[in-house]
Task: structure prediction
Amino acid sequence: MTALSPGHVTISAGGGVADVIVYAVPGPNPTLPNGTILWSVPGDGSGVAQILPAVPSATGIADVFAVQSSGNVQAVTSDGIASWTANVGTQSQKIPDFQGGLVIADNSQTVQRLDGMTGQISWAYTLANPCGPPGGFFQPLGQTDCSGDGYIPVALHTDGTVFVIDGDQVIGIDPATGTAKFNVQLDHSTDSSTCQGSGFYCTPSSSDNFPIIGQMIIAGDGYAYVPYLFEVDQETKGPYYCDDYDEINDHFRMLRVGPSGDSSKIVIRDWRLWGLASCWDDFWGSQGADPLINAGTPNQPHSYNFGTQIANGSAGVIFSWREEPLDRNGDGIGNGTYNNRLTAISASGIDRDVIVNIPDKQPQSDPWWEIRPVLQKEDGTVYGTLTHSDVDTAGGTAGADIFRPIG
Result:
């Protein structure tokens, strides 16, 4: 289109209206100024909530996916053509796969894939255990731990395998059929009590629960890394109400799973938390009960927060987490001192484990202070964010995230 002079004009034809910008570009091979809008794609009027890059593939047509606030998704090509539109709802996580399509995970129990060429649902997988909030050390049976962002935990492999956490299992979904091609079992948390003697004040009991699960990612070595925590509580009660031996063992693990289903479990930490209580006298005596004494090694730490993890080049992950040392009575040392740790984990186990000590941002008694690794430089330096509740010597506002080297 040519015009008499540069400028902005509105063209009307019938009931249609279009805005046109005319540029003065001389020469036989004109080029538009940098920053010129080449094309735009109208949405549905609800506003664009997210733009997701599509992975180039012979089985996909989009270059980007435009997610509308209404829940509509448009597959947009590099020349500005919206090839298809599909509604996936607003309460879902959208993840481009490596076959040109889009994987959708909701906040209940369904994972589905949109075909990259048509936008139609090519398959849907239903979890046996729907999403639910975390339950402390005991994730209820029948409920998947969806504590991260409220959606089903999903990670995509470059070969198309869709990794999903379903209750106490890591499932690998075949991208072609939408069926499970493998599952890897996680350890359960258990709680049991037995009685000695007549057990007048004791009723034997037992419970079985799913573990608590952290952030799952696919690392550069092609394996999924899944941190999880389970607890084994074994309590023995005597004939009196205050005779009690209670041993609680917490086990912190990193599950490593390949796209073919091969797996290994890496020990991060094991803790023994509690111990022995006994009576000076029987139930009707005047002395009461002895205080609870830690039967394990003093100052055993206790995990408090899983944190996040990033890929450590092609050698596994760098995992952030937080622990609180306990004294012999099971109380926090120093009014709640928290150690923030960075742990490098690979196929060989733990390669490096350090406490992150940043003096100008070390509010040790602040349980909400935490580190989150974001990226790693070529020299191995890890950069991340520090969430702090106090104004620090380097500046910043209370509660802000500070980006800086962390390890």
In short: The radius of gyration is 28 Å.
